[in-house]
């Protein structure tokens, strides 16, 4: 994304994330287009205001989507396969907290299976303590998903993690700096 979008629209800016393996070969690409009125789950009913990321494995080959769904109270996302069929759902907490006083909040986004009632995983923002939260802009997130989940759905869940981070937790750091944001390194290990 360009500097204007980073300064003026940090939560709604477009981005392209490139995830590489240990040989520096791109294995996953996560793309989001700019949306002008994002942030509130009420506005997700309008297609122009709903957040969505596209996940590609080997650039140009779409393996799935993560779309924000309309909700009156909580952040809700649908993880879809390459044909657009819903496979998993993510439902956020009723209250999302960030910063040094967030120790009371769970900041848990629950991942539900196809039926929508069985919890199969979660995305968490880890609370690092009052001093670390107050004095730094670094955050730690975890994602818990079943080991036997299809590898493409694992990549789509990773895309959902980045969408949640950009929508709920990135605004606090981007508004206070005018330089390029820090880099994030992911180490993905798989069993062959």
Automatic annotation (TrEMBL):
InterPro entries on file: Scramblase
Cofactor: Ca(2+)
Keyword Lipoprotein tagged: yes
GO MF annotation: an example: phospholipid scramblase activity
Keyword entries, A-Z: Calcium, Lipoprotein, Palmitate
One term under GO cellular component: plasma membrane
Entry annotated with the keyword Endoplasmic reticulum: no
PANTHER family xref list: PHOSPHOLIPID SCRAMBLASE, PHOSPHOLIPID SCRAMBLASE-RELATED
Family the entry assigns: Belongs to the phospholipid scramblase family.
Function as written in the Swiss-Prot or TrEMBL entry: May mediate accelerated ATP-independent bidirectional transbilayer migration of phospholipids upon binding calcium ions that results in a loss of phospholipid asymmetry in the plasma membrane.
Protein name: Phospholipid scramblase
Lineage: Eukaryota, Metazoa, Spiralia, Gnathifera, Rotifera
């Amino acid at each position: 994304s360009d500097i204007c979008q980073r300064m003026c629209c940090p939560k709604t800016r477009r981005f392209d994330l490139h995830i590489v393996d240990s040989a520096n070969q791109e294995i996953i690409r996560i793309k989001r287009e700019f949306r002008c009125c994002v942030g509130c789950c009420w506005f997700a009913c309008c297609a122009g205001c709903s957040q969505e990321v596209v996940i590609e494995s080997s650039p140009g080959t779409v393996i799935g989507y993560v779309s924000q769904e309309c909700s009156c109270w909580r952040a809700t996302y649908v993880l879809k396969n390459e044909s657009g069929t819903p496979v998993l759902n993510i439902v956020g907490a009723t209250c999302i907290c960030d910063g040094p006083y967030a120790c009371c909040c769970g900041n848990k986004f629950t991942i539900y299976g196809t039926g929508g009632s069985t919890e199969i995983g979660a995305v968490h923002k880890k609370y690092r303590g009052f001093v670390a939260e107050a004095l730094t802009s670094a955050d730690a997130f975890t994602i818990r998903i079943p080991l036997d989940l299809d590898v493409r759905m694992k990549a789509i869940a990773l895309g959902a993690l980045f969408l949640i981070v950009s929508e709920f937790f990135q605004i606090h750091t981007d508004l206070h700096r005018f330089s390029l944001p820090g880099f994030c390194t992911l180490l993905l290990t798989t069993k062959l």
